[in-house]
Amino acid sequence: GFNLDLTTRTASGTASSVDFASTMSNGAIFHLHVTSNTNGSATTFKVQDSSNNSSFSDVTTFTSVNGSATTSERVVVTTSVNRYLRTVATTAGTAAYSYNISAARR
């Protein structure tokens, strides 16, 4: 597996892409761990994929994390996933939240 994003943010953000070297034809398993959260606003985390590292589409969206909750979630995608992956975090809050999103071939 690979870490797609391990960071602390105080606003919405998009991580740099990670190259898995080839398409994951059997799908992928994604893990979200929100380890610290003083944000106070709902935050949405998603994983996007791309075949060309330029045009990205949503692969999965994790359950919205409300308020100052810490949580973890595992999502299994059984359809083909393109080789380039990145994460997007969207929030209206301005306080810190820390998280890790990882991916593994299925």
Please provide a written account of the structure.
The chain is an all-beta fold and 106 residues long. The protein contains no helices and 9 strands. A hairpin with a 6-residue loop joins β5 and β6. The mean pLDDT is 96.
Task: Summarize the SSE layout with pairings.
Elements (H helix, E strand, L loop, with lengths): L1 E8 L3 E2 L3 E2 L8 E10 L5 E8 L6 E5 L9 E7 L6 E8 L5 E9 L1
Strand content: over 45%
Mean pLDDT: 96
Helix and strand pattern:
EEEEEEEEE
Helix content: under 10%
Largest sheet properties:
5 strands, antiparallel
Number of DSSP strand runs: 9
Q: Helical stretch count?
A: 0
Distance between the termini: 10 Å
How large, in whole angstroms, is the Cα Rg?
13 Å
Low-pLDDT parts are: none
Which geometry do the CA atoms define?
Answer: elongated
What class would the helix/strand composition place it in? mainly beta
Q: What is the multimeric organization of the chains shown? A: single chain
In short:
This protein has 106 residues and is mainly beta. It has strands at residues 2-9, 13-14, 18-19, 28-37, 43-50, 57-61, 71-77, 84-91, 97-105.
List keywords for this structure.
single chain; 106 residues; mainly beta; five-stranded antiparallel β-sheet; four-stranded antiparallel β-sheet; 0% helix; 56% strand; elongated
